[in-house]
Design a protein that fits this description.
Number of strands: 8
Mean pLDDT: 78
Number of helices: 4
Strand content: 15-25%
Low-confidence stretches: 1-6, 135-162
Shape: elongated
Largest sheet: 8 strands, antiparallel
Radius of gyration: 40 Å
Distance between the termini: 79 Å
C-alpha cells in the first residue's frame, strides 16, 4: 500500500532531522525513532487531495502522518518542534541542526495545514451539493406527472424531505462535536508534552540547586578561612608597621600586602558566584510556578473533555431518538401512500362509471 501511494504522490518539501516519538507508556520521555538524521518530507496526493508527512528509515516508515486542519506544530526550543497525531495516538518530535531549518519546516507545516483545510471545505461543499441534488431528484420527477394524485402525495413527500434534512443536521452536529473532542484531545497532548518538558527542566534545576547549595556551604567555609587568614595577615602587617624597620621587613610587608590583595580578589569572585547561585534559585521558583500553571491548565482540559464526552452521549441519544421518529414517520407515510393509492383507484373507477353514464 505504501509504494502505491508513493507512485501517485509528489514531494513538495523535504528537510533533515532527528525523529522522536513520545513514550506511549509514561507519556513523559522522548524515544528516538532513528539513530541518525533522516529525511522528513511533505507529500501531496492530487487524486485524493490529501497532504502527508512521510519519513523512511531504511525499509521502515517511521512517520506516516496525514495532515489535518486541527494539527498544530509547536516550537519547544530553538532547534526542536513537535506535533500530535490523534489517528496514530502519538506525538512526533523533530530535532534540527539549525534554527533556520526549524523555522522553514514550521512555515511549511502551517502552509500545508491551511491547504488541507481548504481541501476539506471544498470536499464538504461538493458532498452537500450532491446530497441536495439527490434529494431534489424525486421531486423533479413528480413535477413531470400531470395527474391529480400528485397534489395528494406532495404532503407526505414534504414530511419525508424534512425528516432527511433533520437527519443531515443531526449528523453534522455529531461530527462537529467529535471534532471539538478531537481538538480537546490534541490540546491535552500538547499540554502533557509541555508539562513533561517542564518537569524534566525542573528535575535538572533541582539537581543543580542542590549542587549549588553544597558548593555554597563549602565556599562559606573557605570564605571564613580566608577571612581568618586575612585578619591574621593584617595583624602581622600592623605589627610590622608598629615596630618599623627596613630591609627584609619591607620585603615581608610587600609580600603580605600582595597576599592580602589576592585574598580580597578571591573573596570578591566568591561573592559574585554566590550572587549568581541566588539568581538561579529565583529561576527555580519561577519554573515551579510555570509547572503549577501547566497542571492547572491540564486539569481544566480534562474537565472540558469530560463535558464534551457527555455532550457526545446526549447527541448520540438524541440521534437515536430522531432515527426512531424517522422510521415511525416513514411507516406512517407508507400507510398514507397506500390509502392514497386506494382512493386514486376508487376515483378512477368512479370516473369510468361517470363516462359510461354520459355516453348512454
Amino acid at each position: 500500500m505504501f509504494p502505491h501511494h508513493r507512485e501517485r504522490e509528489q514531494p513538495i518539501f523535504s528537510a533533515r532531522a532527528h525523529v522522536f516519538q513520545i513514550d506511549p507508556t509514561t507519556k513523559r520521555n522522548w524515544i528516538p525513532a532513528s539513530k541518525h538524521a533522516v529525511t522528513v518530507s511533505f507529500f501531496y496526493d492530487a487524486n485524493r487531495n490529501v497532504y502527508r508527512i512521510i519519513s523512511v528509515g531504511g525499509t521502515k516508515a517511521i512517520i506516516n502522518c496525514t495532515v489535518t486542519p486541527s494539527m498544530t506544530f509547536t516550537k519547544t526550543s530553538q532547534k526542536f518542534g513537535q506535533w500530535a497525531d490523534s489517528r496514530a495516538n502519538t506525538v512526533y518530535g523533530l530535532g534540527f541542526a539549525t534554527e533556520q531549518q526549524l523555522h522553514q519546516f514550521s512555515d511549511k507545516f502551517k502552509e500545508v495545514k491551511d491547504a488541507a483545510r481548504l481541501a476539506r471545505e471544498k470536499s464538504q461543499d461538493k458532498e452537500l451539493a450532491n446530497t441536495a441534488l439527490s434529494i431534489a431528484a424525486p421531486q423533479d420527477l413528480s413535477d413531470d406527472l400531470q395527474s391529480p394524485p400528485v397534489m395528494c402525495v406532495n404532503g407526505p413527500e414534504d414530511k419525508l424531505f424534512r425528516s432527511q434534512s433533520a437527519d443531515i443536521t443531526l449528523s453534522s452536529e455529531k461530527e462537529r462535536i467529535k471534532k471539538m473532542l478531537s481538538e480537546g484531545s490534541i490540546c491535552e497532548i500538547n499540554l502533557e508534552a509541555e508539562l513533561f518538558t517542564l518537569q524534566d527542566s525542573n528535575t535538572k534545576l533541582v539537581a543543580a540547586l542542590h549542587e549549588a547549595n553544597a558548593n555554597v556551604e563549602q565556599w562559606k567555609k573557605q570564605l571564613a578561612a580566608y577571612q581568618e587568614e586575612t585578619d591574621r595577615l593584617r595583624d602581622q602587617v600592623a605589627e610590622l608597621e608598629a615596630h618599623g624597620g627596613h630591609g627584609p621587613s619591607d620585603m615581608l610587608k610587600d609580600e603580605l600586602t600582595q597576599s592580602l590583595e589576592e585574598l580580597e580578589a578571591l573573596l570578591k569572585a566568591k561573592d559574585e558566584e554566590i550572587h549568581i547561585l541566588q539568581n538561579k534559585k529565583v529561576d527555580y521558583h519561577e519554573m515551579e510556578h510555570d509547572r503549577d500553571e501547566a497542571m492547572h491548565r491540564l486539569r481544566e482540559m480534562e474537565m472540558r473533555n469530560s463535558e464534551l464526552e457527555r455532550r457526545i452521549q446526549n447527541t448520540e441519544q438524541n440521534l437515536g431518538n430522531s432515527l426512531e421518529d424517522r422510521d415511525r414517520m416513514d411507516s406512517e407515510i407508507q400507510r398514507a401512500i397506500e390509502i392514497l393509492d386506494i382512493k386514486i383507484f376508487d376515483l378512477n373507477d368512479l370516473r369510468q362509471s361517470l363516462v359510461k353514464l354520459i355516453d348512454k
